[in-house]
Structure formats: structure tokens, C-alpha cells
Amino acid sequence: MKRITILSSLLLCGLIWSCNRAINNSTENYGMAVSEETASADINFEAAPESQTRLYSPVTMKGRSETSNNTVSPVQNKKIIRSGNISIASKDIKKTKLRLDNQIKEHDAYYEQESTSAGSTYTNYNLIVRIPVNQFDQFISGIENGEDKITEKSIQAKDVSLQYYDVESRLKSKRTYLEQYQKMVSSAKSVKELLEIEEQIRQLQEDIESSESLLRNLSGQISYSTLHISIFYSSTENPAYTYTYWSKIKDSLDTGWEFISNLFLGLISIWPIGIIIATAVWGWKKYKKRKSK
User: Fold this and answer.
1) I want to staple 79 with a disulfide (CB 3.0 to 4.6 A). Which of 20, 164, 199, 220 is the partner?
2) Torsion angle of the four alpha carbons 284, 285, 287, 292, in this order, in degrees rounded to the nearest 10
3) Which residues form the DUF4349 domain (predicted)?
4) Which stretches of the chain drop beneath a pLDDT of 70?
């Protein structure tokens, strides 16, 4: 009985010892495997292609940003509206106007507005001239180099580049949207959707027409400069024409004739009162005759 107990104790101890050894071996194997995988991962990271490490590197991003900055479109042309005012004291109003007419033909300009006022001692021309922008300075130089005296001059230049390119950009966007909405008409699924698309198209067309009108107006002002010209001839020493004694007689006769004409017209205008007076006189005379009898 004792032998059986001793044998079974020995077997149990051997079994426990073998189990502990197996556990230790598996732990060591697991540690070695983990270390090998870590080492292989380190090796793979170090041996990674240069293209992968360079893809998100700060140097590469900096290079890309510099490249994108270099592709920025060049500065757009300036859009300038030039205008001015000039006053001319003329020695001979007819010659001055004739020289100005020739100068306008020479520089491909035109009169936008022309008005004249004249009196016994003065003659004035108020003109608005549109001149090609590339001829504007030469046109003014031609006036300054003439025989007449410049009494006033002012030149203005207004930069409308921001407004011009903003309108132009918005116009392109609206045209793009209009094309998209026009394509959507054929794919409308209901009458309500079709009406909504057509309303958007109508609004876009109105906006496009308004933008085109504004762009044409700006382009016209940019292409042709505006110059306001005032020509005057007024002097006590050199009147517009010689006011002689015969001229005074003529003016007096004209004034007398005008008075007679106005008096005659005035008498005609009161003809009802004349008829009433004539009737009253005739009645009074008739009454006296009857009374005397």
C-alpha cells in the first residue's frame, strides 16, 4: 500500500514538472516570435521606399506650395476711364471752332453734344467730345499748342478695374448656370419642376442682360475718353461784332417795329371789348336822336 502511494506521488511530481517546463518553453517561443516580428517591422520601416517617406514630408509640401504659387495668373490689365474739362478764350470764335472740327476728324473723335449761345457782345460753345483713349493726350496737346488761351484745364483718371473684372466674372458664372438650367429643362419630371427651372432661366437671362449692358457701358467709357470743352468770346475791347452807329439805328428800328407789331396784335386780341364799346356808342347816339325829336 505504501509503495502504491509513493509511486503515485512520484508520478504526480513528474507530471507537474513537465507541465511547468512546457509552459516556460511556450513563453520563450512567444517572446522570440514577438521580438522577431518587431525586428522585421523595424527593418521594413527602415527599408521603405524613399517615395513613400517623401510623399508627406514638409519639404515636399513646401515644394508643392511654391509650385502652386508660381502658377498664379498674371496681373490683369488696368481699366482706366479718363475724362477732362477745358475752357478756351478765343480771339476768333469761328476760326477756333473750325480748328477744333479739323482736330476731331484727325483724331477719329466725335461730338456727343454741342450747344451754342450768342449775344451782342459774346458767343459761347459748350461741347462734349468723345476721343479714343490712345489719342486723348495728343488731342489736348493740339488744343494747348493753338493760338487761343487756355483759361481752365482739369484731367481725371478713374480706375474701374475691380468693378469691370467683377462684372465680367459674374457674367461668366451666370452664363454657365444658364446653360446648366437649360439642360435641365428636358429632364424635368413634373410641371411644377419645369416652371421652377424656367423661372430661374428667366431671372438669369435678366441678370445677364443687365451685366452685359453695364459691361458695354464701362467698355465704352474706357475706350473713348470724354472731354468737356467750353469756348467763349467776350470782351469790351473786342466785342463779337463791331457795334457802330448804324447798328444802333438798326436796333432802334427793330425795336420800334416790334412795338407796333405787338400793339397791333394786342388790339386784335381785345376785339370783343371793341365790339361792346362800338355797340354802346351806337346805342347812345340813337338814344340822343330820339330824345331830341
Assistant:
1) 164
2) 140
3) 78-284
4) 1-76, 234-244, 247, 293
Helices and strands in the chain, H and E counts: 9, 5
Each residue of 146-157: pLDDT tens digit?
Answer: 888 899 999 999
User: Would you say residue 30 lies in a domain?
Assistant: no
Asked if residue 95 and residue 230 are part of one domain, the reply reads yes
The predicted pLDDT at position 217 comes to 93
Cell numbers for 200, please give them. 430661374
Number of domains in the chain: 2
**Residue 112 sits in the same domain as residue 210:** no
Q: Are residue 132 and residue 113 in the same domain, yes or no? A: yes
Convert the pLDDT of each residue in 76-134 to its tens digit.
588 999 999 999 998 888 899 999 999 999 999 999 999 988 877 788 999 999 999 99
Task: Looking at the structure, tell me whether residues 152 and 184 fall in a common domain.
Answer: no
Residue 156 sits in the same domain as residue 230: yes
Collapsing DSSP to helix, strand or coil, 196 comes out as: helix
Cα separation of 133 and 82, whole Å? 8
- CB-count burial class (<10 Å; 0-12, 13-18, 19+) for 164: buried
Residue 81 CB: number of other CB atoms within 10 A?
19
The verdict on pTM exceeding 0.70 is: no
CATH number at residue 93: 3.30.70.260
- Nearest to residue 188, comparing CAs of 197, 180, 177, 179? 197
Q: Which residues contact 86 (CB under 8 A, 6 or more apart)?
A: 140, 143, 150, 152, 153, 154, 227, 228, 229, 230
